[in-house]
C-alpha cells in the first residue's frame, strides 16, 4: 500500500531548503522547516516570503493561495518537532559528517515507516543512510536550484533502498509537479555527473590557453544550442560549489577527468567565486549581478591592413556541407566556383542549392531578385584548374585524411600565390592537410556546422604553421558572411566536439552500467540543464558511427582513459544500429 505523505519536514532552510519548503507547501503539504537558530529561521521565512511575493507579482499565485501556502509552513529550531512527519528532506550544507549526524538524530525521532531523503547533489546516499537503523527507507531526492522553478528531481536509490520507497517518493515528486528520474547511487547522479565533467574539461581548455573564455562559451552556445557557455555557467553555479562537487565525484569515481582543474582552486583561493563574489571567469557589476562589465576580446584585434582580399571563393565537394557553404558565400555576394568530380555532379549540386534558395524565397527570407543573383554567382566545374583564380578555397570532401591530402596536393599545384586553402574537417589534423602542400602557412581550418546556411558558428583552426594574416583573413571572411568565428589550435575535436563527445560518451557508459535508463538520462539533461536534446537523442541524430569515429580520434590524440569509446557504442555500430539513418540506434524509429 502506497504511503500517504501529508506532513513533510525540511531540515536546513537555506536557498535550496526554503525553496523545497515552498514547493511542498504550494502542493498542499503541511511543512515543518527546521533551522539551527532563530536568526536562521527568520532568514528562511524571508526567503519564502520574498519568493512567493515575486510569484504573486508575476501572476503565478493570488493573494489567497499565497496566504494558504505561507500558513502551511511551520518553522522550528528543534528536530523533535518532526516526530509526526511522513517524509523528511535534509538540505543542510554538503558535508558528509553533518548529514550523517542529522540522519542519525532523525532516525530516533520519526516514525518507523517515515522516509528520510537527502537533497545532496554529490555525496553518497548509501554512506548517509548507514548512519540510521533504516537504510532501506533512505533515498536521495535531489532538487535543482531554484526549486520552485526547475522541474527535475533525481530520485537516488541505494543498493538497499526498498522498492516501495522508490515508488512512493517518485509518485510524491510527480504530485509536486516535478519530473522525477530514478538513478543509482553514483558520484554526481545523472545531471552533475555528466555536466561537471564537461565543465571541468572547459576549464582545462581555458587554463591551457587553447581558446579564450568568450570563444569557449560562444562555441557551445552557437554550436550546440546550449543556454549558457561552460565558463559563464560555472560563474553562475559558483566556482567553490563546482570545486566541491568535482572533489566529491573524484573521491568516489577516481576518474581523472573529475579531478578539479588546478585553475579552479587558484581562483577560489583568490576569492574569484563567480557571480556571487562579483568576479569569476568574468567580472560583474557587483556581487550577485548577472551584468558582465569587462569585455576582453576573444581574439587579438584584427588589423585591416593584415587581411588578404577575398572576392572569389572555391568550394570542393557536393555533399550537404559543401553545398551549404557555397550557398552561404553566394548569398553574401561572393563569386563561387563549385568543384566536383564530374560536371554532372557539380550541376546536380547547384540544383540542390537552387532548391534551398527557392525555399528561402518562398518563406520570405530572401527576395526573388537576391535569390536569382546568388545562384548566378555559382559556377559548377569538374577540374581543379578552374580554381586557379580564387582567393579562398574551402575543401568539404569526405572525412578521410588520404582523400583530403590528395585534394590539397592538387590545390597546391593550381591555386595562385596568396590564396588561402581551408579545410572543413571536424576531427582530422589540419596540419596533415597543410603538409600535402608547399605552402603550409596558407592553410587553415574553417569548421562550419551543419546546416551551414543556418548555423552561425565557424571554428577557425590555426596550425603551428598558419600565418597570422591568414587567421585574420579567416576571421574577417566569417564576419562578412554573417558567421561567428571562434579561434582554437589544431587539436582533435577543436572546441565543440572536444567538449561535446566525451560528455556523450559518459552518458553511454552510464547507460551500459545500468545506472539509469536512456530516457531518464535524456530527461535529466533536458529538464535539469536546459539542453535542447538529451545525449541519446543527439547521438541518434548525429549517427553512432560518426560519434564513434570522433570519440576514437579524441582518445587516440589525448590518450585519456576516460575518453576511450564506451563498449556499448562500439557494439551498436558493429550491429549496424547507427541511429535515425538506419531506423535504430539507442531508440527504435522504425514505427515512426
TrEMBL record:
Q: Which GO terms describe its biological process?
A: fatty acid beta-oxidation
Return the InterPro entries for the record: 3-OHacyl-CoA_DH_NAD-bd (IPR006176), 3HC_DH_C (IPR006108), 6-PGluconate_DH-like_C_sf (IPR008927), 6PGD_dom2 (IPR013328), NAD(P)-bd_dom_sf (IPR036291)
Q: Enumerate the spans annotated as 3-hydroxyacyl-CoA dehydrogenase C-terminal domain.
A: 188-284, 493-589
Which SUPFAM superfamilies does this UniProt record tie to the protein? 6-phosphogluconate dehydrogenase C-terminal domain-like (SSF48179), NAD(P)-binding Rossmann-fold domains (SSF51735)
Q: Transmembrane region positions?
A: none
Q: Which domain of life is it from?
A: Bacteria
GO MF, one term, reads: NAD+ binding
Pathway terms, separated by semicolons:
Lipid metabolism; butanoate metabolism
Q: Name one Pfam family in it.
A: 3HCDH_N
Task: Give start and end of each 3-hydroxyacyl-CoA dehydrogenase NAD binding domain.
Answer: 8-185, 313-490
Which stretch is the leader sequence? none
What keywords appear on the UniProt entry?
A: Oxidoreductase
- The answer to whether keyword Chloroplast applies is no
NCBIfam families, A to Z: PRK07819.1
Instruction: Family membership, please give it.
Output: Belongs to the 3-hydroxyacyl-CoA dehydrogenase family.
Protein name per its UniProtKB record: 3-hydroxybutyryl-CoA dehydrogenase
Q: Which lineage is the organism of this entry classified under, starting from the top rank?
A: Bacteria, Bacillati, Actinomycetota, Actinomycetes, Pseudonocardiales
Amino acid at each position: 500500500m502506497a504511503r500517504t505523505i501529508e506532513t513533510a519536514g525540511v531540515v536546513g532552510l537555506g536557498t535550496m531548503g526554503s525553496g523545497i519548503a515552498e514547493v511542498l507547501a504550494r502542493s498542499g503539504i503541511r511543512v515543518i522547516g527546521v533551522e539551527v537558530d532563530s536568526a536562521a529561521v527568520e532568514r528562511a521565512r524571508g526567503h519564502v516570503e520574498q519568493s512567493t511575493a515575486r510569484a504573486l507579482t508575476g501572476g503565478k499565485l493570488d493573494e489567497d493561495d499565497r496566504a494558504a501556502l505561507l500558513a502551511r509552513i511551520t518553522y522550528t529550531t528543534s528536530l523533535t518537532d518532526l516526530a509526526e512527519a511522513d517524509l523528511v528532506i535534509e538540505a543542510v550544507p554538503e558535508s558528509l559528517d553533518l548529514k550523517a549526524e542529522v540522519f542519525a538524530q532523525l532516525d530516533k525521532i520519526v516514525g518507523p515507516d517515515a522516509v528520510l531523503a537527502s537533497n545532496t547533489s554529490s555525496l553518497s546516499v548509501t554512506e548517509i543512510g548507514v548512519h540510521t537503523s533504516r537504510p532501506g527507507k533512505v533515498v536521495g531526492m535531489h532538487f535543482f536550484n531554484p526549486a520552485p522553478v526547475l522541474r527535475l528531481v533525481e530520485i537516488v536509490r541505494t543498493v538497499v533502498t526498498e522498492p516501495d520507497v522508490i515508488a512512493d517518493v517518485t509518485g510524491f515528486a510527480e504530485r509536486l509537479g516535478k519530473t522525477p528520474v530514478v538513478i543509482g547511487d553514483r558520484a554526481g547522479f545523472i545531471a552533475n555527473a555528466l555536466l561537471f565533467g564537461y565543465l571541468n574539461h572547459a576549464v582545462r581548455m581555458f587554463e591551457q590557453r587553447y581558446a579564450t573564455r568568450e570563444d569557449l562559451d560562444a562555441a557551445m552556445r552557437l554550436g550546440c544550442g546550449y543556454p549558457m557557455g561552460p565558463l559563464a555557467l560555472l560563474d553562475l553555479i559558483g566556482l567553490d560549489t563546482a570545486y566541491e562537487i568535482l572533489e566529491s565525484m573524484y573521491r568516489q569515481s577516481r576518474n581523472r577527468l573529475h579531478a578539479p582543474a588546478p585553475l579552479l582552486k587558484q581562483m577560489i583561493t583568490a576569492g574569484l567565486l563567480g557571480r556571487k563574489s562579483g568576479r569569476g571567469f568574468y567580472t560583474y557589476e557587483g556581487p550577485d549581478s548577472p551584468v558582465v562589465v569587462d569585455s576582453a576580446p576573444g581574439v587579438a584585434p584584427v588589423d585591416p591592413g593584415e587581411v588578404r582580399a577575398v572576392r572569389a571563393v572555391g568550394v570542393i565537394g557536393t555533399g550537404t556541407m559543401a553545398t551549404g557553404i557555397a550557398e552561404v558565400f553566394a548569398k553574401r555576394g561572393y563569386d563561387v566556383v563549385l568543384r566536383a568530380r564530374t560536371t554532372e555532379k557539380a550541376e546536380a549540386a547547384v540544383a540542390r542549392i537552387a532548391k534551398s534558395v527557392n525555399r528561402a524565397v518562398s518563406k520570405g527570407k530572401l527576395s526573388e531578385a537576391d535569390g536569382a543573383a546568388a545562384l548566378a554567382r555559382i559556377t559548377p566545374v569538374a577540374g581543379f584548374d578552374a580554381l586557379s583564380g580564387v582567393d579562398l578555397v574551402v575543401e568539404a570532401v569526405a572525412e578521410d585524411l588520404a582523400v583530403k591530402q590528395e585534394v590539397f596536393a592538387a590545390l597546391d599545384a593550381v591555386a595562385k600565390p596568396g590564396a588561402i586553402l581551408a579545410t572543413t574537417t571536424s576531427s582530422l589534423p589540419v596540419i596533415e592537410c597543410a603538409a600535402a602542400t608547399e605552402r603550409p602557412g596558407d592553410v587553415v581550418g574553417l569548421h562550419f556546422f551543419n546546416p551551414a546556411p543556418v548555423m552561425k558558428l565557424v571554428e577557425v583552426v590555426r596550425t603551428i604553421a598558419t600565418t597570422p594574416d591568414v587567421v585574420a583573413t579567416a576571421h574577417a571572411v566569417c564576419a562578412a558572411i554573417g558567421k561567428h568565428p571562434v579561434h582554437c589550435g589544431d587539436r582533435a575535436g577543436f572546441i565543440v566536439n572536444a567538449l561535446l563527445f566525451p560528455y556523450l560518451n559518459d552518458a553511454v557508459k552510464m547507460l551500459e552500467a545500468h545506472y539509469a535508463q536512456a530516457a531518464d538520462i535524456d530527461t535529466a539533461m533536458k529538464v535539469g540543464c536546459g539542453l535542447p536534446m538529451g545525449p541519446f537523442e543527439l547521438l541518434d541524430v548525429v549517427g553512432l558511427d560518426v560519434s564513434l569515429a570522433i570519440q576514437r580520434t579524441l582518445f587516440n590524440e589525448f590518450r585519456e582513459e576516460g575518453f576511450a569509446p564506451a563498449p556499448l557504442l562500439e557494439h551498436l555500430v558493429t550491429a549496424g544500429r547507427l541511429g535515425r539513418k538506419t531506423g535504430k540506434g539507442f531508440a527504435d524509429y522504425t514505427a515512426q
